[in-house]
């Protein structure tokens, strides 16, 4: 997951319209805190989820997710200890596929991109829903991924993002199959490749451009920790910008256009770009390089640029102004040395494009996610972020990213941790209610 929204990092949060009051549910697995009743009438979706949680097969599965929580944690740690650096997730994919096979998932395969795909067939006709987690991490090959456990706290790179998501998918799948929970349609269980930065969502892009692209009606990604519902897709445009020249001696060749100076001019212009706050727009020069020595005019100046917004139109606008700034910097550096015949050029390589968009708060998938959180008596805010859900959202498919429960700290850092505390099991419980709710209620 691209770190944008807490607990991943700071970002915009849209308060969810949730009502909190004690429900007369009998299942001990729900684990309600005692709260005073208030005058509020459940919406049809909320009432349907309340009834769903009481159905025998669902209630049994919910109870098992609590009593067998250690199974989920064991799977989380086991997957985390299989390295999955960018573009090298195959070993973790193979293990995830084997675990799904052991649970009884059918039609398991690995597609051309490396995604793991399996199916659970419903008892009657209905929609196709994807339940997924991403297999990759941001950590390079050779990173120590051994999990350290202290009580309820697990520490290792990737333990929350997204080993927690993968474990929650496994736990949910396990209970649906073991308890033969009836539902309509088809549930696709997926482990995706390349969700993190350099992967550019390559796994989910392949999913929505392959044989299944026209059959997926709804999409859920489980990514990260806590209880957030991401229904806003932050788009991003990423570029590697290179100013190029022949280079030369800092004294003997002085008077020629300097690629690093051109890059400096560009950075100054980028720093002065106006960026709106509503919708939120951001820009960043994150990496710079070039040069061989202090007394050489470099042959190149290279920088990596990241632009983001929750609005496709706003992202396009800041991108257009960036392009102008880059070319103005080139022209100004050439004009600075009018007598020079030395060439200076600009190369702009696209390194990542993530589309922006929103699954409306009023859609069935968002209403069901909120209603399930209410039934669970957990607070689930609506948030925006950059996740696998960006792709289906951009294609008009109803999609959200749900957190996997528990408490996470230090995502994308070597000391990343996940704390299960007393109620980490509520994450998979919530996910199960959402999944079955989407496939059985309207």
TrEMBL record:
Keywords: Hydrolase, Metal-binding. InterPro entries: Bact_exopeptidase_dim_dom, Peptidase_M20, Peptidase_M20_dimer, Peptidase_M20A. It holds the Pfam family Peptidase_M20. GO terms for molecular function: hydrolase activity; metal ion binding. Residues 232-332 form the Peptidase M20 dimerisation domain. This is M20/M25/M40 family metallo-hydrolase.
